[in-house]
Amino acid sequence: SDSFLSVRDLFVHFTTEDGIVKAVDGLSFDLERGQTLGIVGESGSGKSVTNLSILGLHNKKSTSIDGEILLDGKELVNATESEMERLRGNKMAMIFQDSLTALSPYYTVGRQISEPFRKHTGASKKEARDRAIEMLTKVGIPHAKQRVDDYPHQFSGGMRQRAMIAMSLVCNPSLLIADEPTTALDVTVQAQILDLLKDLQQEFGSAIVMITHDLGVVANMADDILVMYAGRAVERGSVREVLKAPQHPYTWGLLGSMPRLSGDVDEPLLPIPGSPPSLLNPPTGCAFHPRCAFTDKVPGDACATERPVLPTGRAAACHLSAEQKQQVYIETIQPR
Ligand code: SF4
Ligand code: MG
């Protein structure tokens, strides 16, 4: 594949005292330059782990990774730590959920933005400081010239998130990975930060992987959606296709608990019963089968015994027929 980011048959397994956790279990996806992919799923679906492995930030001792991650043609799974260090913060950067994880309390905000810039570009202290002020201005920090010498605790939560975005973008990365970037913020600030990210993406042309459990964020930000369940991709398509006519029973459940975009109260239509499976011992066949209300529509016991594949393009990994995937959705969910 000649996609900008191409993940092929990725397996990420952790060794724990209790056994092997199959956090990512055969995942493939592609992302083009300047596009946004929303990776959606409950916690424990493998979405965060996937992205830590792309960045090479997983625990090397307890993790085994198999498969292929190609960034602009460069293989990352077998890259050395120093190669990864050169890429991180430079060609690819991460925005975390909690700015306090990313920002050190001991250094000024300006220093934390200018340091990666100096490291990757060899800029002088003065140039890097100017760049930090420029970036703080870009992310909407008022009086950036003065605020550049503040410490993170002198910033509000929303401002810290903006400063972290400035830090992530300072080297103009072509891949930005945002893990629940607005979950910790109140709704108004959330919307501002998402708008800011969209503007900056336009300006910098970055590809974004947006990891979230919030379909509202995806609807607003992403071009494509990848729905994950138990470390596997279960549905893929454009935002429009997936939100308008989802094909996988798990996605139906997720959409059932999606707040209406009109801002009405959250009204679960089809809450997903049960809880996410143990990744120590994932269910056989379709990992969703213990929670799925549609297994009786599939002949035999295929749901419990045969792992459904996710075909390429617009698709869902489910044994239901193409017609059933449409019909079931219309019968059970459409009227709302
Ligand atoms: Fe449900 Fe079977 Fe489809 Fe899995 S394969 S989502 S268990 S109908
Ligand atoms: Mg997570």
Task: Explain the overall architecture.
- It is found in: Cell membrane.
- It holds the Pfam family ABC_tran.
- One of its GO terms (molecular function) is ATP binding.
- The protein is of the alpha/beta class.
- The protein has two domains: 200 residues, 3-Layer(aba) Sandwich (Rossmann fold); 73 residues, no CATH class.
- The chain has 13 helices and eleven strands.
- The strands form two sheets. Strands 6-7-8-3-9-10-11 form a seven-stranded mixed β-sheet, with helices on both faces. Strands 2-1-4-5 form a four-stranded antiparallel β-sheet, with helices on one face.
- Strand 9 and strand 10 form a beta hairpin.
- About 3% of the residues have low confidence.
- The site of iron/sulfur cluster has 14 residues, from loops.
Quick recap of the structure?
The chain is of the alpha/beta class.
- Number of DSSP strand runs: 11
Mean of the pLDDT scores? 88
- As laid out across the biggest beta sheet, the strand order is 6-7-8-3-9-10-11
Query: Cα distance, first to last residue?
Result: 40 Å
CATH architecture of the largest domain: 3-Layer(aba) Sandwich
Major β-sheet profile: 7 strands, mixed
CATH superfamily of the largest domain: P-loop containing nucleotide triphosphate hydrolases
- State the name of the first-level CATH class of the largest domain: Alpha Beta
How many independent structural domains? 2
Helix content: 25-40%
Structure classification:
alpha/beta
